[in-house]
């Protein structure tokens, strides 16, 4: 159970008492609720622009998106209200290791972007090798070289040649 | 009859056995690696099975799914860290037994029980799927719409701690499912002029991002293995006659429980393992041994989590409704091959259906053979560094996303979904409802609109159609049950609080 209902009677716009973690969860959930409301409101707005159905009885292409976004809006508002009432919906208690997470993601975005220039197999080889350096461990350079060479071989040999995937 | 013979021909061909063995080995490794599981394994595997054709592709996936359920128990026994959520109950007695120097024995019980459970679930699938499918063929669009809604209500069970978060995710998944050309009028929706989105958001790209990439991103933030690793050498995995005599009842009860719970939408091995363990303990002559390395404490949960595989495939094949994230992924695989799961599959592709039905049983037997022969190797794979596993997932994710349509657009989309999935994990939002809603979105919308066109816009068709009414009532029950349980628990807590206050 990730959700610990810890509603505190009387608490309105402030997070429930319960230490740093709970306060952190409050802000995380508040932001998440606002994003959910914004997404559903935006989706509803776009759905309203869709044409009506042509056949008799057809509710049209905008009907389900509209119903889904209204449902999403209602649930998101319920979520927001519960967060504001101080209910702890859980969240990340530890700080996100932004450098590492963004580093790993950034490497693979770079792999995807440069695939058309130097080839996906080579990019993956370089990318995976460099990415292993983000992890702690013994003999990082040897590990990086072995991993890079291994994945280049898998991508080029197994997928490119054997499975005939038209890799860029 | 032709379908049966054709399917058996495919299963027992060289390629059939090869994909079953490869699937089993991959499944055991993926299941044994803590943090990974059948969902991640299948999402990474699907794009590469396209060239195999539907029968071989499904055989490989079923083999991986079944073996991953067993694989989870290896790390549960040796590391006290269940490889999959369904192996959580096994960790208690498995690790306790391994600490007594009986790691080999614990794994042999787990492998045998998993095989028994898998075969039992497969037999149940064989017996139940066809009669249910022939019944489902009589459903109209309104009935199908209600079946889709019933499938969606499993969100309640897949939401973890918070129903409201699960519902937000389901709404997000349904919204994503409406992107692309609409199924009735053919109008493009929310495509922003991008031709890549005309066929909708590529389900597999979303799947790989949400399940696999998010896990790799989470992995870079370190994995904690709290318990000391059992370093016993693991070799043979054959169960002695005495152990058979001791555990057969638990294997049987676990298999029945797993199959029945597997059929229910949203209830999978992670719940079945605990129910089966509790049942076995209640029936055991030495319940005090549970938690201290009881053989039945391993046999019951392991039989149950493998039996859920056959159970979970019943609604998928008979109704076209996936009841779990893993079966939702299999729907994605069928769609990739231009097939839609459901009762019509029995007439459209009988050899495929029989390959799935018989394949589920055979896959369990292959899992036993592969698990017995390669166990020492598997135990070593578990010690692969996180760095290699995480970058491996990322590399296969990139290749897999590209392989779907040979478009780099899908790779960017997959990475985007990876970030969304990672943030959702951090904020404790369940990912499974998104996948389920994306799969069921098409079924729900196309049947909803077809039903309304056939009734000329009269919404009463959803009430007057008996099948629709039945499934809508079941949906309501399915959604309200967790709420009712929560209210009951709150009332109990309040009563306890009042009683404690009075005592003081």
UniProtKB/TrEMBL annotation, chain A:
<dbReference type="InterPro" id="IPR009936">
    <property type="entry name" value="DUF1468"/>
</dbReference>
<dbReference type="Pfam" id="PF07331">
    <property type="entry name" value="TctB"/>
</dbReference>
<keyword id="KW-1133">Transmembrane helix</keyword>
<feature type="transmembrane region" description="Helical">
    <location>
        <begin position="30"/>
        <end position="52"/>
    </location>
</feature>
<feature type="transmembrane region" description="Helical">
    <location>
        <begin position="141"/>
        <end position="159"/>
    </location>
</feature>
<feature type="transmembrane region" description="Helical">
    <location>
        <begin position="102"/>
        <end position="135"/>
    </location>
</feature>
<keyword id="KW-0812">Transmembrane</keyword>
<keyword id="KW-0472">Membrane</keyword>
<feature type="transmembrane region" description="Helical">
    <location>
        <begin position="64"/>
        <end position="81"/>
    </location>
</feature>
<protein>
    <submittedName>
        <fullName>Tripartite tricarboxylate transporter TctB family protein</fullName>
    </submittedName>
</protein>
<feature type="domain" description="DUF1468">
    <location>
        <begin position="34"/>
        <end position="168"/>
    </location>
</feature>
UniProtKB/TrEMBL annotation, chain B:
<feature type="transmembrane region" description="Helical">
    <location>
        <begin position="74"/>
        <end position="95"/>
    </location>
</feature>
<feature type="transmembrane region" description="Helical">
    <location>
        <begin position="351"/>
        <end position="375"/>
    </location>
</feature>
<feature type="transmembrane region" description="Helical">
    <location>
        <begin position="251"/>
        <end position="277"/>
    </location>
</feature>
<keyword id="KW-0472">Membrane</keyword>
<feature type="transmembrane region" description="Helical">
    <location>
        <begin position="459"/>
        <end position="484"/>
    </location>
</feature>
<dbReference type="InterPro" id="IPR002823">
    <property type="entry name" value="DUF112_TM"/>
</dbReference>
<dbReference type="Pfam" id="PF01970">
    <property type="entry name" value="TctA"/>
</dbReference>
<feature type="transmembrane region" description="Helical">
    <location>
        <begin position="142"/>
        <end position="160"/>
    </location>
</feature>
<protein>
    <submittedName>
        <fullName>Putative tricarboxylic transport membrane protein</fullName>
    </submittedName>
</protein>
<feature type="transmembrane region" description="Helical">
    <location>
        <begin position="387"/>
        <end position="415"/>
    </location>
</feature>
<feature type="transmembrane region" description="Helical">
    <location>
        <begin position="316"/>
        <end position="339"/>
    </location>
</feature>
<feature type="transmembrane region" description="Helical">
    <location>
        <begin position="107"/>
        <end position="130"/>
    </location>
</feature>
<feature type="transmembrane region" description="Helical">
    <location>
        <begin position="167"/>
        <end position="185"/>
    </location>
</feature>
<keyword id="KW-0812">Transmembrane</keyword>
<keyword id="KW-1133">Transmembrane helix</keyword>
<feature type="transmembrane region" description="Helical">
    <location>
        <begin position="12"/>
        <end position="36"/>
    </location>
</feature>
<feature type="transmembrane region" description="Helical">
    <location>
        <begin position="427"/>
        <end position="444"/>
    </location>
</feature>
<feature type="domain" description="DUF112">
    <location>
        <begin position="17"/>
        <end position="436"/>
    </location>
</feature>
């Amino acid at each position: 159970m990730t959700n610990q209902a810890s509603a505190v009677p009387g608490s309105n716009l402030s997070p429930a008492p319960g230490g740093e973690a709970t306060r952190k969860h409050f802000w995380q959930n508040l932001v998440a609720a606002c994003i959910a409301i914004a997404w559903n409101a935006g989706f509803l707005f776009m759905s309203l622009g869709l044409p009506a159905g042509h056949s008799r009885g057809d509710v049209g292409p905008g009907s389900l998106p509209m119903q889904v976004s209204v449902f999403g809006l209602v649930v998101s508002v319920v979520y927001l209200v519960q967060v504001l009432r101080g209910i702890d919906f859980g969240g990340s208690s530890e700080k996100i290791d932004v450098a590492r997470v963004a580093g790993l993601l950034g490497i693979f975005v770079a792999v995807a972007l440069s695939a058309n220039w130097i080839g996906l197999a080579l990019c993956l080889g370089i990318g995976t090798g460099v990415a292993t350096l983000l992890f702690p461990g013994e003999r990082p350079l040897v590990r990086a070289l072995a991993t890079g060479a291994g994945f280049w071989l898998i991508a080029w040999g197994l997928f490119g040649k054997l499975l005939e995937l038209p890799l860029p | 009859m032709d379908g049966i013979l054709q399917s058996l021909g495919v299963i027992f061909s060289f390629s059939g056995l090869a994909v079953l063995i490869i699937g089993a080995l991959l499944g055991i490794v993926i299941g044994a690696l803590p943090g990974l599981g059948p969902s991640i394994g299948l999402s990474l595997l699907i794009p590469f099975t396209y060239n195999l054709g539907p029968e071989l592709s499904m055989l490989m996936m079923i083999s991986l799914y079944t073996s991953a359920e067993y694989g989870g128990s290896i790390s549960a026994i040796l590391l006290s860290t269940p490889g999959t959520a369904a192996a959580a109950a096994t960790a208690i007695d498995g690790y306790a037994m391994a600490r007594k120097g009986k790691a080999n024995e614990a794994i042999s019980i787990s492998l045998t029980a998993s095989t028994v459970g898998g075969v039992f679930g497969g037999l149940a699938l064989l017996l139940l799927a066809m009669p249910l499918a022939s019944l489902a063929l009589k459903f109209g669009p309104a009935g199908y719409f209600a079946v889709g809604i019933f499938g969606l209500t499993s969100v309640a069970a897949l939401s973890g701690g918070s129903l409201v978060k699960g519902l937000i995710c389901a709404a997000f998944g349904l919204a994503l499912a409406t992107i692309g050309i609409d199924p009735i009028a053919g109008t493009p929706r929310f495509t922003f002029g991008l031709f890549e989105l005309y066929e909708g958001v590529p389900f597999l790209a979303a799947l790989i991002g949400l399940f696999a990439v998010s896990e790799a991103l989470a992995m870079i933030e370190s994995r904690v293995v709290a318990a000391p690793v059992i370093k016993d050498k693991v070799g043979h995995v054959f169960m002695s006659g005495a152990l058979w005599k001791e555990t057969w009842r638990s294997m049987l009860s676990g298999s029945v429980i797993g199959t029945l719970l597997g059929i229910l939408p949203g209830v999978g091995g992670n719940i079945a393992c605990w129910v089966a363990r509790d049942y076995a303990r209640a029936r055991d002559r030495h319940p005090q041994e549970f938690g201290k390395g009881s053989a039945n404490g391993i046999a019951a949960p392991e039989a149950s989590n493998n039996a859920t595989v056959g159970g979970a495939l019943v609604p998928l094949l008979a109704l076209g409704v996936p009841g779990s994230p893993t079966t939702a992924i299999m729907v994605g695989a069928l769609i990739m091959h231009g097939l839609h799961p459901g009762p019509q599959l029995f007439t459209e592709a009988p050899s495929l259906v029989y390959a799935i039905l018989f394949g589920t049983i055979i896959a369990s037997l292959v899992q036993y053979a592969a698990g017995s022969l390669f166990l020492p190797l598997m135990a070593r794979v578990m010690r692969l560094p996180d760095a290699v596993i995480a970058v491996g997932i990322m590399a296969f994710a990139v290749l897999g996303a590209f392989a779907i349509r040979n478009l780099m657009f899908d790779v960017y989309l997959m990475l985007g979904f990876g970030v969304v999935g990672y943030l959702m994990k951090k904020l404790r939002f369940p990912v499974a409802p998104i996948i389920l809603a994306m799969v069921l979105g098409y079924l729900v919308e196309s049947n909803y609109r077809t039903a309304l066109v056939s009734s000329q816009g009269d919404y009463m068709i959803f009430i007057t159609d008996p099948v629709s009414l039945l499934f809508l009532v079941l949906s309501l029950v399915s959604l309200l049950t967790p709420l009712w349980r929560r209210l009951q628990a709150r009332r109990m807590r309040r009563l306890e609080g009042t009683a404690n206050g009075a005592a003081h």
